[in-house]
Amino acid sequence: MIHPRTAPLAGAFRVQRWTRVSMASVGVTLFIIAVLAVVPFFFGADVDEQLTVLLIFVILAVMWNALAGYGGLISVGQQAFIGLGAYGTIFLTQHGFTPYLAMIIAGLGAGAVAIPTSLIMLRLRGGQFAIGMWVVAEVFAILVSLDSGLGGGTGVSLVGLNVFAPGYRQAYTFWITLACATVLLGLVFFLLRRPIGTSLQAVRDDEEAAASLGVNVVRSKRVLFVVAAVGCGIAGSLYLANTLFIQTGSVFGVQWTAYMLFMVLVGGLGTFEGPILGAIILYLIQANFGNSGAWYFIGLGAVAIAFALFLPHGLWGAIDRRLRLRLLPVGYTLRTRKATAPAEPEAAAGEG
Amino acid sequence: MTWVNAIVQGVLLGGFYALLACGLSLMFGVMRIINLAHGDIAVVGAYLVWLLATQLSISPFLAALLVIPGMWVVGYAMYVLLLERSRRAGLLVPLLTTFGLAIVIENVLLQVFSPDVHSLLSSTGSLATASVSVGGGLSISALGTLIFVTAVVVLTGLQLFLSRTNAGRQMRATAEDPDAAELVGINARAVYARATAIAVATAALGGVFLAIRSTFDPSTGPTQLIFAFEAVVIGGFGSAWGTLVGGVVLGVAQVIGEQVNPQYAVLFGHLVFLAVLAAPQVGILARRGQGL
Q: Which of B34, B91, B94 sits opposite A131 (nearest CB)?
């Protein structure tokens, strides 16, 4: 792989990753996290609950985008890991673990299950991978529903959190969610900034060409697949902690993929900031139209189709194209040595 | 004897899966597109036949004769309005748009027809219950046989269309190399539209039999898509007969699973699918990179 810094034209151009704007925006991001961290001191449990929902959406959107937008792996079955995270938490609490510890272990456990799963699934490409993952989610759902200890198909409650008063419980859950979201987003951010991020995008754009340049295709995909599984697993266990009751039908349901597809397409497939924007948009739509039943999903599907066809890089892609705004830079921008004006978009490497 | 019976029932069930799967396989073979709305399109076919049959009090088979040509036209429209643009936008875009379409179809059906479960089993008269006893406790149902024979006829027809007719040769040429096909005067866009129309019409035919042999509701589609896809993968992408073999293997696995424990039926099918994926060569009849 030719690293941009050693590319032939290095003398005439310089590679830029951080800009003043992006450094400032990282500062703003850290500030927002700090502000969110003190929210429970000033607002009630309902605000904590709502913000927890939003942060779970953010985690899911970032994970699905990492797979689809950077790895070219469109999965219709990430609910497999959401469900494993949630039911793994139930299983561990039944065996003496405290709930919050169980949630983290269950999330990591989803990642452990992803390793053998990847051996089979990463043999598939494109649409075959997409539906193959759906089958995996169905298999996990059936296996869980066959276990009467996990409530069978009728659902199960997380009982271990009853020791806290509801207001405290919601605040603790929110803090855990905020911490998980920060760590997971940071993990994806630094992963994509490392050479593996560039390798993955090369694989996404042309697998054979990437392999011929020395990219270890399978290893790159596997790392991403496992990270996305951990993220979705933790999101699942956080969802459980927020709702306290789950059923196989809903937690392993394909509506999760509909949400993730909507957030990523509307926010911006293959941009780091886009899915976060998409999660906020989905959260606002759900708060206003979530009770509209079938119409809500018809709208989500139709909007997702429209974005895929007419605005493939989403809202953030459109903003980025006009303003060259890189708030959280994972790519490389090539600039000429003398001029301060940004290079043509074609010269930007590494960004989808 | 129950095991022999299970295998016979599984083979007949496999015919149904092959019928559902052949359109999915054709679209992938010709366009490299996996239509994630395929199962929901089959369910649309089921609803349309159910609607005509109950509203006009006609036989479901007569209703199917009206619905299938209609779905053929829908297939053309689907290509022109959705897939043409998706296909040009990139390899992954058709997956995103067809998944979006699947969500839309499923929820439109939910809005229009409510989540109620329907079936056409009762309106097919004696066919639903008729069976031929072949002795030794083994009986073959008339409906299962009809579905299996229909699947074989459709697959044979598709194979003959691809190998013998001019339009079929054009389709194979386009599948092989669209640019080269255009150079010799083939309109690739028209070929793709035709392939989509065939796929949607056969999916609707599968939907008709879905409605007749079991129950359906707006959320039935994804399961049909998964079974169709499993049949295609087990058989090996790339041959019509592979699709039939894949359907039969899936059907037998499910019926055997059901014999072991009724809750295992679908699970056994999935496990056979995963086992085939884990095998060194994916697909039983996987062939050299041919169009279909």
A: B34
Does the beta-carbon distance from A130 to B271 stay under 8 Å?
no
Could you tell me if B79 and B197 are in contact, meaning their C-beta atoms sit under 8 angstroms apart?
A: yes
* Residue A246 dihedral angles phi and psi, to the nearest 5°: -135, 155
Report in angstroms the alpha-carbon separations of B209 from B39, B128, B148.
Answer: 13, 11, 10
Nearest CA to CA, how far is A252 from chain B (Å)? 13
B-chain CB neighbours of A295 within 8 Å are: 107, 111
Answer whether residue A76 is part of any domain.
yes
Which positions of chain A have pLDDT values less than 70?
1-11, 325-326, 333-352
Tokens of B199: 């796929």
> What number is the ipTM of this complex?
0.89
Cα separation, A59 vs A40, whole angstroms: 20
For residue A77, what is the domain's CATH number? 1.10.3470
Q: Give the global pTM.
A: 0.89
Task: Examine residue A228 and state whether it is found in any structural domain, yes or no.
Answer: yes
The domain containing residue A253 runs over which residues?
A: 40-300
Contact present, A331 and A350 (Cβ < 8 Å): yes
Point out the residue among B32, B97, B110 whose CB comes nearest to the CB of A309. Answer: B97
How many domains in chain A? 1
Q: B229: which 2 tokens?
A: 């896809």
Cβ distance of B99 and A257 shorter than 8 Å? yes
